[in-house]
Design brief:
- There is one protein chain.
- This protein is mostly helical and 130 residues long.
- It has one domain: Alpha/alpha barrel (Glycosyltransferase), CATH 1.50.10.130.
- It is 59% helix and 0% strand.
- The protein has 6 helices and no strands.
- α2 runs antiparallel to α3 and α4 packs parallel to α5.
- The longest helix has 22 residues.
- The N and C termini lie far apart (52 Å).
- The model has no long low-confidence stretch (mean pLDDT 85).
- It holds the Pfam family Terpene_synth.
- This is Terpene synthase N-terminal domain-containing protein.
- GO terms for molecular function: terpene synthase activity.
Length: 130
């Protein structure tokens, strides 16, 4: 009896999450939702919805000065094997080619950038600097 109730509850929650995924309009909100779902280990329930969102977001150019948003966008697309260049991080470099000092205060962005560094290709120097 308890197992049946738990299964029904899980199915109801999956329906709710699917609705949230389909209705998410803001790119950053969509990316954070996908990231949260993946970190909780339940992304396999929502593969089609996640693929649809990432396909849509891959086509748009995120013109944002928010390192966290750019790093999250990069990581989620790169993990799903979308072609995305690490050049999107160039806007955060100083004149010496290093990441700007002011970024040190943004812990969330730095952690996201650190995760991105593991997805870099050997010739992507900018991710090695991260």
């Amino acid at each position: 009896m308890v197992v049946k109730e738990q299964k029904q509850r899980n199915e109801g929650l999956q329906i709710e999450i699917r609705k949230i995924l389909r209705n998410a309009i803001d790119p950053l909100q969509s990316l954070e939702l996908i990231d949260s779902i993946q970190r909780h280990g339940v992304a396999y329930h929502f593969e089609q919805e996640i693929d649809d969102i990432l396909h849509r977001l891959h086509k748009i150019n995120i013109d944002d000065d928010d390192l966290y948003a750019i790093a999250l966008h990069f990581r989620l697309l790169r993990q799903q094997r979308y072609q995305i260049t690490s050049d999107i991080f160039n806007r955060f470099l100083d004149d010496n080619g290093d990441f700007q000092d002011c970024l040190c205060n943004n812990v969330k962005a730095l952690l996201s950038l650190y995760e991105d560094a593991y997805l870099g290709f050997p010739d992507e120097d900018i991710l090695e600097k991260a």
